Amino acid sequence: MYEINETHDPNLKSWVESANDPNTDFPIQNLPLCMFWKAGTEHQAKEKMGVAIGDQILDLESIIGRGLLDRFFKDDDREKYAPYFNFACLNPLAWMIGGNRLLLRAGLTFLLNERASADERGEVQKSLFPSSDVIYKVPTSISDYTDFYCSIFHATNVGSMFRPDNPLLPNYKYVPIGYHGRASSIVVSGTDIQRPKGQNRGDAEKPPVFIPAKNLDYEMELGFFVGNGNELGQSIPIGEAEEHIFGVCLVNDWSARDIQAWEYQPLGPFLAKNFATTISPFVVTMEALAPFRTKAFERDPDDPEPLDYLSDEQNKNFGGLDINLEVYIQTEKMRTENIEPHLLSRSNTKDLYWTIGQMLTHHASNGCNLQTGDLMATGTVSGKEKSERGCMLELTWRGTEPLTLPSGETRRFLEDGDEVIMKGFCEREGFRRIGLGECRGRITPAT
Ligand code: MN
Total domain count for the chain? Predict the structure, then answer.
């Protein structure tokens, strides 16, 4: 697990002025990674690795190519590490051993620091682009995507809609429940989401009909990327889980509840989920998150302890993550009338029943090989309170308690033209606030 060091010093400031704005997601203490094109070049040029700083994106390949980070790597032979920065995805950096990524972080902190020399600033400036001129891409090459179900509040709410007497199934407190999702339909924030069609059996007296989904929903989740994978047949001990995690992003697991209700038994989610999953463009590294680690979920005294392979002292004391999550909606009418996006919920990943380390270790515990760049998501992050419910299914209690929006409109589920905007940020006394950026998507009509 990464330690807090001088790169987390809250007093550090950058010569990139916008990075010193107290509300920015990307101060010098964050330095999240992304893949981008300069707008207009996305059809001709290769995508580039970038680092977000304030309202700018730093082109990593360019500063590596010009030798600006040479002195920060132990091995000063640029030919050895420069190829890492010349890929079409972040996988080489995900795979990079933690120690080298710490050197990269230290080097970037130095170059972007307000104490950098005028010459250095001038050189680095040549590799900076305003983020408003940038088009993002899904940051890693994702071979596989797995979605968990780790909020006990979400699982209890959803369970109680279907099984009021027995909301939580007996495996829940033993097994981090998950399912294999679909990697090919993962899209980056800003991509429109077409309403899926599917089988609906709203009328139990009649056969199902094939129509545009009626109960389209979002799920507010935290995603994390696999750094180093494991060989087929090998597992990942809980004490080593953190070394295999690259960083986190925001995930919207779009869900068609009517399709889901009809198809999910006996094998779980399928077409109700795999039409699209939206992720935020930035990988906030585990290095950057060091100040925001917290203890794992405190179980009720009556709950079983996790089985041995899912538990150790480090995971128990620091395996949790203190990340605030927010969901907003803006309808077509709200956009026309210039009404700001409306806050739907606020939740926090520290309320998850299982830690990301436990999810990863459990996933590989049968010898399943995880691969660099793979995406895992926590499942809908809901808290105890009504205001902390991370999807519409819970917020409107299956559509029975519609929401009223500031435009006077009501919502049971999402309508065409609705835009869902997710945000994430970390705050802790004595540290600089860092953010995860945004994860947004707008619903377009079925075709
Ligand atoms: Mn989900």
Answer: 2
Residue % of the chain over a pLDDT of 90: 90
> So which residues are the catalytic ones?
154
Express each pLDDT in 92-124 by its tens digit.
Answer: 999 886 678 899 999 999 999 999 999 999 999
- Ligand 1: distance of its center to the CA of 432 in Å? 30
Check whether 322 has a pLDDT greater than 70.
Answer: yes
Specify whether 185 is located in the same domain as 331: yes
Q: How far is the CA of 253 from the centre of ligand 1 (A)?
A: 5
Cα 256 to chain centroid distance, Å, stands at: 20
pTM passes above 0.90? yes
Q: Is 100 exposed, middle or buried (0-12, 13-18, 19+ CB in 10 A)?
A: middle
How far is ligand 1, taken at its centre, from the CA of residue 220, in Å? 8
1 within some domain: no
Q: From ligand 1's centre to the CA of 179, what distance in Å?
A: 9
CA end-to-end distance (rounded Å), the chain: 47
